[in-house]
Amino acid sequence: MKRTIAVTVMCVAMMLMGAYVRADDAHNRCTRIGHKWVDFWNGGDETKAFDVFTEDIVYEDVTFGAVSHGADEFTAFAIFVFTTFPESTFTLVKSTCSGQVGFIEWIWKVVDTPGKGFFGTGLTIEVRGVATIEIHGNRISRNSDYYDYAIMLRQLGKLPPGL
Fold this sequence. Notes:
alpha+beta, 35% strand, 5 helices, Nuclear Transport Factor 2, Chain: A, 6-stranded mixed beta sheet
């Protein structure tokens, strides 16, 4: 009897905590949201933003301290990203959520486009990051991106190895 109760309590606790979800589990709501996020950033079309995000989105690039509030600011941010980094690709590593919060782990491969980009070096760089998200329905209402800019600077030759 005690063993049955203990197993039941453990099962309920695991359900309440949320379970790890593989990025290739297409039937999972969190994975679908993660794929929509990646598809948006890979698509280069700001008009598709509100298929993924709510109109009152708060989108933060924590690394650069840039925060967009609402549709107009976020659309301007997306246009800036698409024009500054026209050769970039996001890959979904994994995503998970519990209730209305979650995360999307991604890899960003980007060409530091000459005349644009970070320094215009023409080099291709890759960085791994994560977006913490809040979800309203099946769209993202808050997104905070975190990634290590020092890794990018090293790949661009702007920061020595080990710093």
